[in-house]
Amino acid sequence: MPTATEEPKGESRRWRGREPADRIATRRRQLLDAGLELMGTIGAAGMSMRAVCRAASLTERYFYESFANLDALQLAVLDEVVLGARDRLLAALADAPPEPEKVFAHVVSRFTDYMDEDPRRGRIMFVESQATLALGGRGNELIVEFTAPIAMSLSSGERKRNPPDDVDIRLNAHAIFGALAFLYRPWLDGALDISRDRFDRHATSAITELARARSSGAVRSGKSAKGK
User: Fold this and answer.
1) What is the spatial distance between Cα 164 and Cα 186, in angstroms, rounded to a whole number?
2) CA–CA separation, 5 vs 223, rounded Å?
3) Model's pTM, two decimal places?
4) Second label for 190, Cα 20 to 30 Å away, from 4, 86, 198, 221?
5) 20-70, CATH topology level
6) Residue pLDDT, tens place only, 154-195
7) CA distance 28 to 31
8) Where are the chain's structural domains?
């Protein structure tokens, strides 16, 4: 007989008034929430499938209903956190002030809100994204997706005066992500005893300078010199 929280095996009909797809989605959400808690506290290396199931109050068979293995769950948690940050930045750009010099500060403030709402996000995004081989590969892909809105927030005038090439964009994406990691992690942990306003202003200044970095001009100049 099934337990109070476990439906009969093989059932594909309504159970307790809920459709199968709804029950599966609910259990998947429970597993993701458990994964978020464990990755954001003990870290990916300390996780196990059994620990996830205990935290989600589900049996192991329900784990495999939604995820092929522990790597798959951890990747789903990472995607949810990083793409959630990206979407928050895109929303910030949509309602940013019209003055170009205020756009970047507005975007940084919204990102700080996202991190401050749940400090576990900071550990997952900046530490656990490189904790395993699988997470590292996906984490590197997500860096560009996450920093795309940051690049978009630069004034069009700056990009016209000194346009980046593809290499500039990729290098700046990694530089910005690294700066965010080393700025936000100690602030979220309470190691930086500074005000939120001061922190946002410094983060805005640091990231703005990194986004302006260019090496493409030197490459083009070198090619021109060789061609002469």
Assistant:
1) 31
2) 68
3) 0.81
4) 86
5) Arc Repressor Mutant, subunit A (1.10.10)
6) 544 455 677 788 888 778 888 888 898 999 999 998 999 999
7) 5
8) 20-70, 71-221
Residues of the chain with pLDDT under 50: 1-4, 15, 155-157, 224-228
Which among 109, 103, 102, 124 is positioned nearest to 195, based on CA atoms?
109
Architecture of domain 71-221: Orthogonal Bundle (1.10)
Residue 176's identity, in one-letter code, is I
188-212 exposure pattern, b = at least 16 Cβ within 10 A, e = fewer: beeeeeeeeeebbeebbebbbebbe
Question: What is the rounded distance in angstroms from the CA atom of residue 224 to the CA atom of residue 220?
Answer: 6
**Distance between CA atoms of residues 39 and 30, nearest Å:** 14
Look up residue 124 and give its two tokens: 């997952």
